[in-house]
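Reference record
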Amino acid sequence: MQSAPLVVGFDLDMTLIDTVPGFAGVLRALGAELGVEFPVEQMTAKLGPPLDQVLEPYLEADAIAAAGDRFRALYPQHAIADVPVLAGAHEAIEAVRRYGGRVVVVTGKYPANAQLHLDHLALDVDHLEGWVWGVGKADVLRREGATIYVGDHVHDVEGALAAGALSVSVLTGGCTREELVAAGTHVVLDGLGDFPSWLDGYLLQLRLDALDADLRERGSVLVAYSGGADSAFLLAAAVRALGPEHVAAATGYSHSLPQVERDPAREFAASLGVDVLTPQTHEMEREGYRANGADRCYFCKAELIEVLAPLAAERGLAHVATGTNADDAVAGFRPGIRAAAERGAIAPLRDAGLTKAQIREASRRWGLPTWDKPAAACLSSRVAYGVEVTPFRLGRVERAEAAARATLGGAGLVDLRVRDLGDRASVEVDAALLPLAADLEARLLAGVREAGFEVAVVDPRGFRSGSMNERL
């Protein structure tokens, strides 16, 4: 089962925006109309409670409702232009967006005035709910699926806890750290500037815990293991959760797997105490694979899983697991993912919500040598759709990439692809290296031509993962 999408709730006043100057301006204007000299500094020292409660000590009971209406009417004129966004607010929202999350603002403020603030300050939120306070925020947070609520007041903590959400408090309002902790908040940050790094760490650990729990429940796995960063991390996580005796790795050997990938993959698995099975796969015998249409990966993955499933059964391993991650699942056209799912393979990294960046960070923390390994898709991914995949073409691409890497090895190269476009080779290198010096480019292209391409050019746009899909 895939993890639920991230939804983060934010309070508005003194969490996202510094309402004090605007609130003070409206109080002064209201006081002038009513002939009341409000103690503005005292009334704005700890903003958050409903307006009626703020006005109550200074007005007769039967005058509060009308005064509240007038306050809200005066608000757009006196409180929008002067209210700034708090430091880190935009970055906090963007941090949620990076994980594909939704942002919900839940505030005690009059909704129309709250929306004016959001619009004026270009705060990009998915849903605004106003006129809710304290534990009343819980219903909204539950309805919207928020698992984190960020606020500055003890009553924001009450709302988060009542909703079963994680309470994150910032010290930009009037409540002290001690007050917020006493109210039961789970996390206290100095301000929203600290939120992105906190969210990164929190979500990584949350998803690692989910992965561990999932693998433990599976009991045993055969990992479809290419030796890349994702499948290597999955293999290491499976060993941590289950022990090496309940885990095996399998690498399908065929013309599609570069020779250079094979020994490092075996060595890494051996370091974990895991056996590596190396069955031959025969995707080249599948017409759909050789034809190299947009669905080529479907036939490749179908062949792999159909070869690995009997091996898993023979060894008493309950599941075949692939290294599909959460980014892959939303990357658009991925027929290989569909083929694996149709044949019963599981995708624990995807189901835990782990992104490529999180996998690399976790691999770095665990000391895995694959944490910064460049992406290395199969050789067939280098051949333009519609150009027949053959052993000759794959061998030519492999030789060309080896020559190119040898030429650029001292230039800080990370990613490289030699794309077989049928009538020529297109060489993609890291954009940061472009443009190449003329003599270096000449040597690079000479090596690619010696590998068997009559014509070769350097793509001025640089390396782009999945660039062949641009041609669909």
